[in-house]
Amino acid sequence: MIQTVKTIPELRERLGVWRVQGDSIGLVPTMGALHDGHLSLVRLSKQKTARTVATLFINPAQFGPNEDLDQYPRDIAQDKAKLEAEDCDLLFLPDGGEIYPPGHVTKVRVEGICDILEGEFRPGFFTGVATVVTKLLLQALPDIAVFGEKDYQQLQVIKRLVRDLDIPVVVEAAPTVRETDGLAMASRNAYLTPKERDIAPVLFGTLSQVAENVGRGVSAKDQAQWGREQLERAGFGKIDYLTVRNAETLEEVDNASSPARVLVAAWLGKARLIDNVAV
Ligand code: AMP
Predict the structure, then answer these.
(1) Residue 86 is part of a domain; what is its CATH number?
(2) Domain count, the chain
(3) Nearest-angstrom CA–CA distance, 160 and 154
(4) Catalytic residues
(5) Does residue 30's CB lie within 6 angstroms of at least one atom of ligand 1?
(6) Could you identify the atom of ligand 1 that is nearest to the CA of residue 185?
(7) How does residue 47 score in pLDDT terms, banded at 50, 70 and 90?
(8) 75-125 tens-digit pLDDT
(9) Is the CB of 135 under 6 A from ligand 1?
(10) Do residues 200 and 183 touch, judged by C-beta distance below 8 A?
């Protein structure tokens, strides 16, 4: 079974041995309930580095008081088996007290980009993410760290904090892995009923069409409005946002003169689905 460490000193000791051997190290942070999207990050890391460390920590700091921390899917035995099958070198599986010991008060807040889109609908979410990712990067000091484009805004936040704090790591972005019908793989897809699961692929279909039309020069605002109507018609509940943004700053754009991204967050039953595609 995959080697597992639970404490920061053990993690550092293992990685120290590899580093002395001259092995490069890749880090893949996750919250578990692993699916093929997560495993694609492990594969990318393995292509680029000699050693790959996955981390599994359901970070309470990135859940709001009314969010799904308690219901979030957990299956550590299966996660370990999946990592083992990918030949991942090490799993870092800290408990809450290891990451946030009593008296922990320091937070990493990335101004601006933290407050829009996901940040608007999930206040404190990105500060929770930025804090835990900074800690994991400093604990492991990997050569690369791999994050999925599925969480596109999160990826931009992490790139920003790595630049701003001069953390010596290369952030690698992995493309979104989808089910055959287009639905982006996500641990929270488990919340969908069979009927909702049938509707869910409309999200990616709509985004793709918006991206294509905006790429052809149609107004981004009009297309976003059209996209929201499509989702409502298909049976989605509240649409937190469906918007076309600058691909790096995530500021609003009305045409695709610079690289742009269509981003969406929408509710389907109990599941809040997010997705994004390039224009
Ligand atoms: P999570 O466990 O949801 O926090 O995700 C851990 C990492 O896996 C993050 O970098 C996510 O962006 C990435 N990830 C999650 N789902 C996918 C997917 N469908 N395709 C690619 N990466 C993903």
Answers:
(1) 3.40.50.620
(2) 2
(3) 10
(4) 38
(5) yes
(6) 19
(7) very high
(8) 999 999 999 999 999 999 999 999 999 999 999 999 999 999 999 999 999
(9) no
(10) yes
Cα 244 to ligand 1 centroid, rounded to whole Å: 21
Domain of 193, CATH number, reads 3.30.1300.10
Same domain, 104 and 222: no
Q: Are residues 64 and 147 in the same domain?
A: yes
CA distances from 90 to 10, 71, 80, 136, 242 (A): 11, 26, 10, 14, 38
Contact 50, 24 (CB under 8 A): yes
Domain of 128 in residue numbering reads as 3-174
**C-alpha count within 13 angstroms, C-beta hemisphere, residue 272:** 12
CA distance 54 to 52: 7
Strand order in the sheet with 271-278: 239-246, 260-268, 271-278
Q: Any idea which residue has 């599941």 for tokens?
A: 271
